[in-house]
Write a structure and sequence with these properties.
With 574 residues, this protein is mainly alpha-helical. It is globular and about 80 Å long. The longest helix is centred in the middle third of the chain and has 33 residues. It folds into three domains: 210 residues, MFS general substrate transporter like domains (Growth Hormone, Chain: A); 118 residues, no CATH class; 213 residues, Up-down Bundle (Growth Hormone, Chain: A). Helix content is 72%, strand content 0%. Helix 1 crosses helix 17. The two termini are 20 Å apart. The chain is built from 25 helices and no strands.
Length: 574
């Protein structure tokens, strides 16, 4: 399938896909992915604040639960290869999706029976951490499921857009609606309700379609001593594969242990034993990425070169002689082959892809932590005004952007939509730059378009209309960019290795924003918000340039560009 994604243009393709059971479950799974993220990494802090017993330092370490999302790729190989007894009958992906959703539901429900206090903070943080870990695990498998089940009707572009819609709706439910319920009931009731909702979603997932597991294997070899065809003539020598596997496993193992130890120490109730989270992220974060992405990618590139040059290859079949040989083959299939597949298809273009992944979402990700200080402190809006503008109206604008992104993906193609999304996501930072200088331009647009009049009829004032106009512009642009970016990432991973490859790439999108927030905060203190928004606009334009380069590369090389996911075999509409 070409970059146009669907043979039927525009809304006809979208409407045809919306009738599929796969698309309906994609919306449900998107909701299931967004709800625990909002509850554990957002709303939970409001509960801790209301308790009156938890200090700010303790609440600060709770943000480290988010590391589960940043480093979810570390356990993604297990999700690609390990089956759960009994539940494996549900399907390769569904077994993990349903299990994760039930664990999340159980963890949220359990939280509702614990009042946060200095005495209970240990078990409270353990349950919150369990919910975050299960949520990150669910994300890995849902991303893989989306790639696996895509076909010519429910295309990867449409499924990606629907996923984003479900995710954003969940953010509204787990954020604004949860706060609304808490104001009228209490926090235990909120988390009991949300936990029950996740349990319902988990049971509903039992009837979701799943990809044929046999279609996801790299080879069709049924030999139990060589299930992946790694020991045939022309394949890399087992000794070479064993050494490369050992190196990659050692690096990933070190990263997993390092992050695990850090999180356990950080969630300790004793403040004296807590490590410095800022120091860890700024020093160990880059080292972990180098150890788990950069060096393994270089090893994979070297293996690809060995294979293509005909060096260190088997001249005759060498079947596995022991259980240790078979275990090495399984681990090599899980850890190394996803990387060699990616490097083998993309080649040097992998550098462009990584640069694009690192920079594409930076404009909205890096300053997101400072949004509320900007609205409340710098612009002096009230909490109610910010809630209306960002939580209710803002989410609505985001959904409009996602719908527009889904339409553009089918109407004008993935790469053009990706490029436009990057441009507008960067350019809308200028709206906030204008607000930082008083907002004369945004106010004029709101007044002349009639938007100020509309807001005033609903009980607002011109100042609120100005904020809502800026948030609407940014969120529509971010919606288009988000739909296009998820579709792009899904398009460059292989169905046989989708869990590991997507988890690796999507985790990188969190890196620059996380590492750059400290420097951005210092820049705000020293130079003010206006200069920051000009800087983020310029950084975003760098992503636009990378999009154009990648677009040209794909157009010139066609199928040889290494974009394989859209080549999904057509399946009958359900």
């Amino acid at each position: 399938m070409s970059d146009a994604a669907a043979k039927k243009p525009g809304w006809r393709a979208v409407l045809a896909a919306l009738g599929q059971r796969k698309t309906a479950y994609m919306l449900l799974f998107g909701f299931a992915a967004g709800l625990p993220y909002a509850l554990v990494l957002g709303t939970l802090y409001a509960w801790l604040s209301d308790s009156g017993e938890i200090d700010l330092e303790t609440m600060g370490v709770f943000s480290l639960i988010g590391l589960a999302y940043a480093f979810k790729f570390l356990w993604s190989p297990a999700l690609d290869r390990v089956d759960i007894p009994v539940l494996s009958k549900l399907g390769k992906r569904k077994q993990w999706i349903v299990t994760a959703q039930l664990v999340i539901g159980a963890a949220l429900t359990s939280l509702s029976f614990i009042a946060p206090s200095n005495e209970t903070i240990g078990i409270f943080s353990l349950l919150a951490g369990l919910a975050a870990f299960a949520s990150a695990t669910q994300d890995v498998v849902i991303d893989a499921w989306r790639v696996d089940v895509a076909d010519e009707v429910a295309t990867i572009d449409i499924l990606s857009t629907v996923y984003q819609m479900g995710y954003r709706i969940a953010a509204l439910v787990g954020g604004a609606l949860a706060l609304f319920l808490a104001e009228r009931t209490d926090w235990p009731t909120v988390y009991l309700t949300m936990g029950a909702l996740m349990l319902v979603v988990g049971f509903a997932g039992l009837w979701a379609p799943d990809a044929d597991a046999t279609a996801l294997e790299a080879t069709g070899d049924e030999d139990k001593n060589d299930p992946y065809g790694l020991r045939k003539p022309g394949q890399l020598a087992p000794r070479l594969r064993a050494w490369s596997l050992g190196a990659v496993a050692l690096l990933w193992g070190w990263a997993l242990v390092t992050v695990g130890v850090f999180m356990v120490r950080s969630l300790s109730s004793n403040p004296d034993t807590r490590p410095d989270s800022v120091e860890f992220i700024s020093t160990m974060g880059p080292l972990i990425v180098v150890a788990t992405v950069v060096i393994p990618s270089l090893i994979a590139a070297w293996l690809v070169r060995q294979e293509r040059s005909g060096t260190n290859l088997l001249t005759e079949a060498a079947p596995a002689q022991s259980s240790a040989d078979r275990a090495i083959d399984h681990l090599y299939r899980a850890l190394v082959l996803p990387l060699t597949d990616l490097i083998g298809r993309l080649g040097w273009a992998m550098i462009i892809v990584i640069a694009l992944v690192l920079t594409y979402r930076i404009t909205d990700a890096i300053w997101g932590s400072f949004a509320y200080p900007f609205y409340l402190g710098e612009l002096q809006y009230t909490k109610d005004e910010v809630a209306v503008a960002s939580k209710f109206f803002g989410v609505g604008a985001l959904l409009v952007g996602l719908a527009l992104g889904g339409y553009l993906l089918t109407a004008i193609g993935r790469m053009l939509t990706l490029t436009l999304g990057a441009f507008f996501a960067a350019a809308t930072n200028l709206l906030y730059a204008d607000l930082a200088r008083g907002g004369a331009v945004v106010q004029a647009v709101a007044d002349n378009s009639g938007f100020t009049w509309l807001v005033s009829q609903l009980g607002g004032d011109p100042a609120l209309a100005k904020l809502m106009m800026a948030i609407a512009g940014e969120n529509i642009a971010v919606g288009v960019a988000g739909a296009a970016f998820v579709a792009y990432l899904s398009s460059i991973v292989s169905k046989g290795y989708s869990a590991v490859q997507y988890a690796l790439l999507s985790s990188l999108t969190l890196l620059v924003g996380t590492l750059g927030r400290g420097a951005l905060g210092q820049m705000i203190e020293e130079q003010g918000y206006f200069d920051v928004f000009i800087l983020t606009t310029l950084i975003g334009m760098g992503a636009v340039v990378l999009c154009i380069i990648e677009w040209i590369r794909q157009a010139r090389l066609g199928k040889a560009a290494g974009v394989v996911a859209p080549e999904a075999k057509a399946e009958p509409a359900e």
